[in-house]
Give the backbone structure.
Amino acid sequence: MDSPQLRHSISLHPHPFQLHSPRPSPSTSRMALSVREATSTGVDNVPCRTRTDVLDEENSPPRYANRNDPFKLASRLKSPEEIDRIKANTARKRDGCSPALMETRGVSSSKKLQGFYRDQNRNIERLLTPVEEHVRAAKELNSQNHLKYRIAVYGSFVANLVLAVVQLYGAISSGSLSLFTTMADAIFDPMSNLTLLLCHKAVSRVDPRRFPAGKARIETAGNICFCFLMTSVSFILVAFSVRELVTGGGSETNTFHLPSVVAVAFAFCVKLALFLYCWALRHQFSQVRILWEDHRNDLFINGFGILTSVGGSKLRWWIDPMGAIILSVLISVLWLRTAYSEFQLLVGVTANTQAQQLITYISMTHSPLITAIDTVRAYTSGPRLLVEVDIVMDPAESLMATHDVAEELQIKLESLPDVERAYVHVDYETTHKPEHFLKKEL
């Protein structure tokens, strides 16, 4: 998924589907009229994009040849000067609105309108970029940031191993339930990192005779099992904390243990450094994004755990078990939320709007022999997408031409970084019923 649906992909390629917000533009909305049952409007690929001479590249939008832009999307591009000149109509009187309020609303509307056209420019540029350019950019970005990726993944793994030992010492030496909760989360962090690494290696080593569909879904299944394991540990800690609250403390406050607090504070500082490092790479590699989210959650958990542990030692004893209950419930909610999103990926939730637009536009502009697009489906199969496209061609075309067009389109769609498999079906008309039914009759 930003949409969370594709964020757990184990591919190291950046995702062209999630670069921009899925706000529809006037040009893409108009393009939807030419697609009968496409799930959304088309978006990307022209076989070859060529720019004509531009008088001033910085001040004028790029222009594209007609043969490479059949829907005239480039005509909707606006230069930065045109966008800056856009002002909302603030002259219209609003009943009950003061001049200052009218001006404030006008400025806000102006910024929203300017933001819309900037997003439209970026979207159109992305749509008119050839598939080959998407693939080349993904490989180039992967090679450039491969070292940073390895530092983020393996550095987080080593750091989590060390922090697990440190927080284990802090929890045992202090006896604080809050620190036991942070310790449990810290122990499972390196296991989560190890799961990601092993799944990536397993996916890259596939026996096609035994696993014809690949092993990409193994990560999704592993994440679901891990989520429920972590949730079970949190429930156990909740039970211990509730028992502590029921039995009551022996004194008004617990014993304060400075080394354990220092140990958890050290873990907090290390997590903060990892969080800041992964923040810059979170949109480029999905694995790094998962690690970034984990470090973000750990920052809150460790910080809150320190506060409740010290509060139980300095203020009232019940603050410590109460803090452990709150932390355990929070950890359970976070992991169950992750499990729900992983279930959606495994079941097969529909792809986001930008993915559907991109696939539809690629199919529409693939070949002049394609007269229409009947149906476009894109849905998850684990971390990646399965694509089904029904194209319409002239019934008088030869079998050879029909086969070549469909096969080339399939190869082109499967070259996209987040597409696992693509299936192209050729029709000669659009009046028939859908080929597949959602509900099977037994």
The beta strands are 35-38, 370-381, 384-393, 419-427. Confidence is low (pLDDT under 50) at residues 1-65, 89-95. The first strand starts at residue 35 and ends at 38.
